[in-house]
Amino acid sequence: MTDAVLLALCTCPDDASAERIATTLVEERLAACANRVSGLLSIYRWQGQVERASEALLLIKTTEDRFAALAERLRALHPYELPEIIALPVAGGLPDYLHWVSTCTADQA
């Protein structure tokens, strides 16, 4: 049986931190895969001001069962005071790919 797959999103301040975070999450089996998308311009409200920042986006494939551990680890690794960590349910996909995500993130304990 395949665990429910999630797509987690997280912005990072630069490519280097995004790559470091992504590598750690995959190595620790919290994510099956993470894609880094460079060159984002983020516009957001922070501490009463409208801010603009260049960022990199991570698209992280994980499972519902592993998301809490992923979010905790991601928060510990992230340089931001309040990192963006959100997850969206994957409504469908190639069954073999979804199975692969579940297999790669299976807890090895």
β-strand amount = 35-45%
Largest sheet: 4 strands, antiparallel
Radius of gyration: 14 Å
Number of strands: 4
Q: What quaternary form is this?
A: single chain
Share of helix, binned: 25-40%
CATH topology: Alpha-Beta Plaits
- Mean pLDDT across all residues, rounded? 95
Q: Termini separation (Å)?
A: 19 Å
**Helix and strand element order:** EHEEHEH
CATH class: Alpha Beta
Would you tell me the structural class of the helices and strands?
alpha+beta
Number of helices: 3
Parts with pLDDT < 50 across at least 5 consecutive residues: none
Strand order of the largest sheet: 2-3-1-4
Shape: elongated
Tally of discrete structural domains: 1
Layout: helices, strands, pairs:
Elements lengths: L4 E8 L2 H13 L5 E14 L2 E15 H14 L8 E4 L5 H10 L5
Antiparallel strand pairs: 1-3, 1-4, 2-3
Structural key phrases:
single chain; 3 helices; 4 strands; alpha+beta; Alpha-Beta Plaits; 4-stranded antiparallel beta sheet; 109 residues
Describe the protein.
- It is a single chain.
- By secondary structure, this protein is an alpha+beta fold.
- The chain has a single domain, classed as Alpha-Beta Plaits, CATH 3.30.70.120.
- Helices cover 34% and strands 38% of the residues.
- It contains three helices and four strands; from the N terminus they run βαββαβα.
- It has helices at 15-27, 64-77, 95-104, and strands at 5-12, 33-46, 49-63, 86-89.
- Strands 2-3-1-4 form a four-stranded antiparallel sheet.
- Strand 2 and strand 3 (49-63) form a beta hairpin.
- The longest helix is centred in the middle third of the chain and has 14 residues, at 64-77.
- The chain is elongated, with a radius of gyration of 14 Å.
- The model has no long low-confidence stretch (mean pLDDT 95).
